[in-house]
């Protein structure tokens, strides 16, 4: 069983315009409304890859004033709903694209959670049995402390000691978990987030990122996947005798890149549940991220396209780097 945790999900409004000007009345040419939140996107993608309902569960918090959209989305994609409902509403996020594809975002912070919110979330986690993989996704909701994700990791270690934990967040929550006593099994920072962990700027250059992967700040995390934009990714796999890899991917014609990082997590969770090797877990993650790019929907993949990408050695190349 796979579980994703999203403490601060969203309902996302996406607008397209021919032109967008500040201080002026702008007209949209296309719009759509989607249920968002990094963990919800990851859960949706993992469930699509399984092609069977109830192999993926999702938890977190949503407000009861607009919870129906979240509930309907989870149900439609066969994801078990273990969310904590609280008085209030799930936050709204707005994305506007101009005629050149330039994106402007306005994201609400989210509603303040009840004082016992974390305890309620831990109880929900306890109800999901047979966990093999868990992801903790996105920003923490208002009212939760920076060490909340460390608390979640410690709790998961107790109730599901064999589950592999992916932490997909940034900022202080990421640094707190990686540097503390409750490190996750897998993180997937971009080069900027890697720089936040190690304490110095890291560019999208693969050699520079590979060097940063040897920083002692990452010593407690077994699998680190660093995305480098068009330069692919670099990987550290292991603690005592780590192996290093460089990933190259072929660029696909982009339709919508929103949710691609979340799709990577969904693909990796699928690989974890299937018992794949770390290299194949990464391969499925990369394929899912690529497959999302060619879809109009956010956090959505075609299962057959993912399999096609996984099985095409020209599309995804994972090469071990000799670090002796």
TrEMBL record:
Question: Does ATP-binding show up as a keyword for this record?
Answer: yes
One GO biological-process annotation of the entry reads: lactose metabolic process
Can you tell which superkingdom this protein's organism belongs to?
Bacteria
Q: What class of enzyme is it?
A: transferase
Database matches in SUPFAM superfamilies: Ribokinase-like
Picking any one GO molecular function of the record gives:
tagatose-6-phosphate kinase activity
Question: Which EC number(s) does the record attach to this protein?
Answer: 2.7.1.144
Record field: catalytic activity? D-tagatofuranose 6-phosphate + ATP = D-tagatofuranose 1,6-bisphosphate + ADP + H(+)
User: GO terms for CC?
Assistant: cytosol
Pathways per UniProt:
Carbohydrate metabolism; D-tagatose 6-phosphate degradation; D-glyceraldehyde 3-phosphate and glycerone phosphate from D-tagatose 6-phosphate: step 1/2
Protein keywords:
ATP-binding, Kinase, Lactose metabolism, Nucleotide-binding, Transferase
Q: Which Gene3D superfamilies match?
A: 3.40.1190.20
Quote the InterPro entries the UniProt record gives: PfkB_dom, Ribokinase-like, Tagatose/fructose_Pkinase
Question: In what residue span(s) does the Carbohydrate kinase PfkB domain sit?
Answer: 11-299
State the similarity comment.
Belongs to the carbohydrate kinase pfkB family. Belongs to the carbohydrate kinase PfkB family. LacC subfamily.
Q: What is this protein called?
A: Tagatose-6-phosphate kinase
């Amino acid at each position: 069983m796979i579980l994703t945790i999203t403490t601060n999900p969203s309902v996302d409004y996406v607008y397209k315009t021919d032109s967008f000007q500040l201080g002026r009345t702008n007209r949209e040419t296309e719009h759509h409304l989607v249920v968002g939140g990094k963990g919800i996107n990851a859960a949706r993608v993992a469930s699509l890859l399984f092609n069977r309902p109830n192999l993926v569960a999702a938890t977190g918090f949503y407000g009861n004033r607009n919870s129906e959209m979240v509930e309907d989305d989870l149900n439609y994609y066969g994801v078990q709903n273990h969310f904590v409902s609280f008085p209030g509403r799930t936050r709204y996020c707005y994305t506007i694209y101009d005629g050149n594809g330039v994106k402007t975002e306005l994201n609400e912070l989210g509603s303040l959670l009840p004082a016992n919110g974390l305890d309620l979330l831990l109880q929900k986690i306890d109800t999901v049995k047979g966990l093999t993989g868990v992801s903790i996704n996105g920003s923490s909701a208002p009212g939760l402390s920076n060490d909340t994700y460390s608390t979640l990791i410690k709790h998961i270690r107790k109730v599901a000691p064999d589950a592999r934990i992916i932490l997909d967040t940034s900022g202080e929550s990421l640094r707190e978990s990686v540097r503390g006593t409750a490190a996750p099994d897998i993180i997937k920072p971009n080069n900027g987030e890697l720089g936040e962990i190690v304490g110095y700027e890291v560019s999208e250059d693969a050699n520079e990122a590979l060097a940063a992967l040897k920083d002692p700040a990452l010593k407690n995390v077994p699998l680190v996947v660093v995305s480098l934009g068009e330069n692919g990714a670099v990987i550290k796999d292991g603690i005592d005798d780590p192996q290093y890899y460089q990933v190259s991917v072929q660029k696909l014609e982009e339709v919508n890149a929103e949710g691609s990082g979340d799709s990577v997590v969904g693909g990796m969770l699928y690989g974890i549940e299937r018992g794949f090797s770390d290299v194949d877990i990464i391969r499925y993650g990369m394929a899912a991220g690529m497959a999302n790019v060619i879809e109009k929907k956010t956090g959505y993949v075609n299962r057959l396209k993912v399999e096609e990408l996984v099985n095409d050695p020209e599309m995804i190349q994972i090469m071990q780097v000799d670090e002796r």
